[in-house]
Design goal:
143 residues; mainly beta; Immunoglobulin-like; 2 helices; 8 strands; 35% strand; Heat-shock protein Hsp20; Small_HSP; HSP20-like_chaperone; A-crystallin/Hsp20_dom
Amino acid sequence: MLMRTDPFREFDRLTQQFFGTHGTTTRPAAMPMDAYRDGDDYVVRFDLPGVSAESIDLDVERNVLTVRAERQAEFGDDVEVSVSERPRGVFSRQLFLGDTLDTDRIEAAYDSGVLTLRIPITERAKPRKIAIGSRDEAKQINA
């Protein structure tokens, strides 16, 4: 139902670990994500600590969901920084949503640094029972 569309994310993470470039790369760090089915909804949760709700932007075009957020520096230009390990800048993540998800009814909530999206599963994708008739019933219908 849901696929990540950033095939280079894991490669970037491994490169950053190996070369110790975490935080100094020009590519922003990815948003950690959980995705799971909960009843008739698909739930996607993104960790965005320190990001204001106003800086989060959600877009759906066709079946591609784009999440963008920005974390700005909390200190001014005249401050001498001793350690700066928290990533800042613009974060972006794109997800391919399957045809079984209703992109017109996505609900979004942001609480305690976690963005939660609830995406309903379309009616046609929900499991349903199919009645099995007998051969005699089929003959009566066709007669």
